[in-house]
Each structure stands twice: as structure tokens, then as C-alpha cells.
Amino acid sequence: MTKKIIFLDVDGTLVNYDNYLPDSAVEAIHAAQAKGNLVYTVTGRSKAEMYPPIVAIGFDGYIGGNGSYIEVGGEVLKEATLSLAETTKIVDWLQSRGLEFYLEANSGLYASRNFEERAQPTIQEYSQRKGNNREDMTVRKAFPDLIFDADLYRNDINKISFILEDYQDFLDAKKAFPQLQAGTWGGVGERALFGDLALGNIDKAVAVAELLTHLQIPVADSFAFGDAKVDIPMLAHCGTGVAMGNGGEEIKEMADYITSSVDDHGLWSAFQHFALI
């Protein structure tokens, strides 16, 4: 059997947006590995957000920060971060506009002074737009290891996310930092609740290509699973692109195959369909 490599987005693919991890997904991953296949996560999360239930699954490696970090079998293959000067400039710009934010690093998530208070209604809306009508959702539940009162001028940052008071904030950020990659995220319909800034010329597809080259695995033997627009380049690059049933219309339209939702055992079903288990 030719060894396959499987790339899994995390939020909306491996887990739902309430961080529920189906047993069937874990079983599918282990069965695929037992058959000789490799399984990697490819996520916007920094390593600090890869919480114990996910790490405990036992992946063959990890791509984080939407492609800025690559880990293979516990060894770091790539770690690209914003410079101290870039982070300082972004932090000062956000603070000058009164925008609350958090810095994403493998060492932790570092929040601005008033992030928790300001983010509360935004996090609730984000949760609701992902189909989880939880009035008890809080910033601390969404980000359990968020660090406050830390030095925000750092040289280990993968990405910076900030609350949008208006869509114009995103447009202005994109204009203010043309050398960086600007994006938005926020729930069903990809509504822009947050903006983010990261290094330019880095995305999930770039990282997947680098990893395939390193492992000397043909593109044709790769499978990518995702649910959002940020996953589209990865699905387009891999030999087979699979959209989750709970995914957005854009990714479903371009995918080679649409499986069922996270909650309806989408990973297990697709792994069976493609004889990965």
C-alpha cells in the first residue's frame, strides 16, 4: 500500500466550534495511522492552543499559525515569527485606535489590558454564529490559558488577532501593514468579527508544500480536510480536498468531496470512503 498523508484543520474539522472532539474522529485517525498513513493537523492555532485532548491523540506532526510553524515528530522544521519591530509597530497601532487584541505565540496567548471585557460580547456572537447558542460562553472558556499583564513587545509572535469595531478597521490594518498578511474571521458566513495580521507569503498550502517536499511524499498521495475559506488553498494544493458538511459554501464548491459534519462523524465517513482506514 502506498503511504498517504492526511492534513486536518482543527476548528470546524477535527473539533466542532464548542471544542467537542468526536470519539469517531480519534478512532479514524488511529486506524489510518495503523494502516501506515501519516496524520498532521494544519491550523491557525498556535501551539499554546493545542490543548491536551488534541495533543493526546498522537499526531505525526503539526502545522500551526496558518503555516508559520511546522513540527515533524517532535522536531521543529520551521518557525517563522514577526520581528520585535513588527510586533511593536502593530501593538502601538492597535492601541492608538483603541482596538483590543491578543498575540498568538507557541509560548502562550498574550492579551491586551481590556481584551477580556471588550471581547465578551464578540466571543458570544462568534459562538452563536458557529451554531453553539451558549449564553454562558466567556472569554476564559474560549481561551482558557489566556495570559494578561505580560509584556506585549515580543519577538516570538506568529499572529495577532484583534476585535473589529468596524470593518474599516480591517481595511485600515491591511493598508497600514501592506507587507503582512491581513485576514478576518468570525463564524458562519465568515463574518468579520476579528481581524488578524501575520507574516506575508505564508499560508496553509505553502506549509503543506514544504512538508511534502521534506517528507518526499508526492502531492497525489495527500488529503486535506477543512471547513473555511482559509482552508481552500490547502485543499486546492493537495491531491484530494475534502470539505466538511458544516463548512462554508465556498469551500464546498471547490472541494473534491463533501463529507458529513463534525458532529455526524464526518472524518470517519470520509476516511472510510477513501480507504484510509
Automatic annotation (TrEMBL):
<dbReference type="InterPro" id="IPR023214">
    <property type="entry name" value="HAD_sf"/>
</dbReference>
<dbReference type="InterPro" id="IPR000150">
    <property type="entry name" value="Cof"/>
</dbReference>
<dbReference type="InterPro" id="IPR006379">
    <property type="entry name" value="HAD-SF_hydro_IIB"/>
</dbReference>
<dbReference type="InterPro" id="IPR036412">
    <property type="entry name" value="HAD-like_sf"/>
</dbReference>
<dbReference type="Pfam" id="PF08282">
    <property type="entry name" value="Hydrolase_3"/>
</dbReference>
<protein>
    <recommendedName>
        <fullName>Cof-type HAD-IIB family hydrolase</fullName>
    </recommendedName>
</protein>
